[in-house]
What we know:
The structure holds 2 protein chains of 2 kinds.
Chain A: E1 7-21, E2 29-43, E3 47-51, H1 58-65, E4 73-78, E5 81-82, H2 87-93, E6 94-98, H3 110-120, H4 125-138, H5 154-166, E7 172-176, H6 184-199, E8 203-208, H7 211-217, E9 220-225, E10 228-233, H8 235-240, E11 247-253, H9 259-264, E12 269-277, E13 280-287, H10 294-300, E14 305-312, H11 316-326
Parallel strand pairs in A: 3-8, 3-9, 6-7, 7-8
Antiparallel strand pairs in A: 1-2, 1-4, 4-5, 9-10, 11-13, 11-14, 12-13
Chain B: H1 2-18, H2 22-45, H3 51-82, H4 86-91, H5 96-126, H6 135-162, H7 168-180, H8 195-199, H9 202-215, H10 220-251
Helix pairs in contact in B: 1-5, 2-3, 2-5, 3-5, 3-6, 3-7, 3-9, 5-6, 6-9, 6-10, 9-10
Main location (chain A): membrane
Keywords (chain A): Antibiotic resistance, ATP-binding, Nucleotide-binding, Transport
Membrane topology (chain A): Peripheral membrane protein
Amino acid sequence: MVRVAEPVIEVEELARTFHTRRGLFRRPGKEIEAVKGVSFAVERGELFGLLGPNGAGKTTTIKMLITLLLPTGGRARVLGHDVVKDARDVRGKVGYVFGGDRGLYERLSGLDNLRYFAELYGVPPRESKQRVGELLELVGLVGREKERVEGYSRGMRQRLHIARGLLHRPQVLFLDEPSIGIDPVGARELRVTVKNLVESGTTVLLTTHYMFEADELCDRIAVIAQGRIVAQGTPDDLKQQVTTGTVVEIEVFGLPDGVLEKVRAEPDVQSVAVDVQGQAQLLTVHAQPGADVTQAVMAHLEGSRFGRVITRQPTLEDAYIELVNAA
Amino acid sequence: MRLLRLVAVAWWLQLKMRSRSAFDGLLSLLWPGFFATTIFMMFRQGDASGPALLSAAVGSSAMGIWSAVSTTAAFALQMERRQGTLELLVLAPQPFALLLVPLTLSMATIGAYSMVATLLWGRIAFGIDISIADPAAFVLAVIVTVFAIGMLGMLIAISSIRYRTAWALGSAIEMPVWLICGFLVAINDLPAWVRPLSAVLAPTWGVAAMRAAATGHSPWANLGWCLLTAASYGVIAVLVSRWMVHSARANATLALS
Lengths: 327, 257
């Protein structure tokens, strides 16, 4: 795929502060800085991921970019249009899809929902029917389109959301946690759809909690925590920023008392975590860069019954957790 | 042409959505029916007959349209907010006020069902002679009144974009409008200071036109004023909605959280 380095989303020191008030007469105010001056740029045809924990400012950032919220600082341009001054120009060229059950008319059929939004988003009448048909096919809702949305599963709703977001052929698509609550098969289909969109030239800004999704899909990622971008780059760049070396995962059945402390005391061990998985415990040991701690850890587990032992390189999730915790 | 198509398709789909619940449909017939019954009985006790009862029937039927719009118009945007579609409406590259026209017109259309039911109820249960002197003009007056009430409903709805609890406004003004617009009593019987208020409310002229058509008088002047006031609501709505949407974006009130 040939890309031209032309930013379609330019964000400079973008900030948003929310003011809340309580009480009726003497109303004490509270300020919440949701986004504290973030800057990034997304090129045409790129799939850019915005990762961060709940409340990090991902959705607020997206809502400023699609003109649903006014920034309280900084500036942003989408396809060359200022999101404050040229809101209407931005709206005609971007699509917005969010995750969850909301955002659809429950009492209407899937087909009627698409017909309604096609009118609202200015799809030419002659194209409307064909476009709706194409999108129903794309998201796999052909045959179910005449049923009311209130009877749809979450996955079907999410697919209908995507069809809605694509009705007017947006040049830039904002996907805000689109795979939340979808089963693995649905999530995989969604990833294929997103990949196809990017291949056809659509620029996508995606927020997600699922690291494998970001790792598989995103060309570049920005990690946002507490309203600030703490790291930015390709998934591989981010993995290299992790200060740990290899990760050893050992499935143990009945972890003896005191072993954790002994493993933690090993000189080349950086951190240790235990996750209970049914009858087994998964011991995850992060080693110092360049060190191999497998033998040392196994020595402490002598006499214990254990299952699989995996030694792997740090994943995007490891990088993400480290970056967010350090923020 | 494009805008007309948008309004027509959106009106039809909104109407479809609102007509899907049999429970809601029943209420929209029963509720105005109770008010109409009360009014017919009061007029009967006051020995009203002939044109006075017909006038009461027309007035109480208009109450049905207004009640359907006033109580639901303001709440409609709160519903859109709850189901997460308000943000999608704002995101549409159309003037926001235009998107509210089909929404409130669909409510007024449902109100028109209750109008027919009220007139039939008056005829069947109270024996009111529903002889309309100029049926064509009467139907036109009903259509214009439905449109005008829809436009007034749009003005009420707009405040809900910015203020999440503004839906209460619709219920608050439902009954005062019955009085101020002369649905029940003649406007001349109201205090003088109320009359300018009556004059700027489109339903006043709409109901007057319906009564004129029903009793064989010319409805055209009243219809003209009704259309003029309704059109002015449209202009006000466009201006106010721009400010309201801007303020909602600044104050983050388009979503629930």
